[in-house]
Amino acid sequence: MFEKQHLTLGEFIIANQDSFQYSSGELSRLLNGIRLAAKVVNHEVNKAGLVDIIGTAGEMNIQGENQQKLDVLANEKFIQTLKNREIVCGIASEEEDDFISINSFDENHQNKYIVLIDPLDGSSNIDVNVSVGTIFSIYRRVTPVGTPVTLKDFLQPGKNQIAAGYIIYGTSTMLVYTTGNGVNGFTLNPALGTFYLSHPDMKYPETGKIYSVNEGNYIHFPQGVKDYIKYCQMEEGDRPYTSRYIGSLVSDFHRNMIKGGIYMYPKSSVAQNGKLRLLYECNPMAFLAEQAGGKASNGFRPIMEIEPTELHERVPFFCGSKKMVEKVEEFIQA
Ligand code: P6P
User: What pLDDT band is residue 58 in, cutting at 50, 70 and 90?
Assistant: First the structure.
């Protein structure tokens, strides 16, 4: 049979519909919303490099339009496309203090999906032309369909996710996602506006030689984390490892998943729970990591086992190659 050289995202969803435990039509409508928003945001992110032409955030650009902060724009685009899809009943975002309830009173569209997003993670890197990303996490609601969503629908443990992924706006724009059957990466052909399957069945190497952490916070880290960082730097066996940290979670995660490595954002004496948000940064990345054979923990237990108590709660985050996460847990728990 003729093997399609380059499966598109839409074709991939249809080809794998029986592996998605919910209706594939609903998933494809959800992912189509995310895909559309990703293309719009990709266009704006790439344009941002022309700051002196289009003006910086908050100023009028040469077209006389109000130049919006890109993370505000990304947030609006994702919320707008998800609302229009008539499939989502609630959205939570890093850019919104409270969750957004989307009430559909059309009995044919009793929306049952919840989406949590970090619309533009690492956005402070845009002005220096470093890759940034969008992170999304999808659940089924737990309160009765047809009623307004409640906080309970959002405070679900990461193990309840039905899909999660990220878009990385880098040297090329990619959409990487999982529905619980492995991780697949799609690269955008900007000329056609189509995502093509470029990285099928992505796997975290069991170990690696890259560690990603902001060593500027070293003196504030718990002793176990300090000891692990020194372990990475020691001349012994396959060490010293390489330190690679670009201040963009999606980019560090993506590189480590391809090459092998660990990303760490520990708690510290200045940040008791670290910096990263459980619901729309750590849980989706943990789902992807575990689906790719990696691991994600807070240093003591799997990230996806944590029962959330607040929408924007932060957790310490260690994520990547399984053996490297297990090793840092050994140091932390010693
Ligand atoms: P720091 C970006 O703000 C982010 O949430 C992640 O993408 C990134 O890894 C981290 O924070 C960088 O934080 O404190 O090292 O600058």
Answer: low
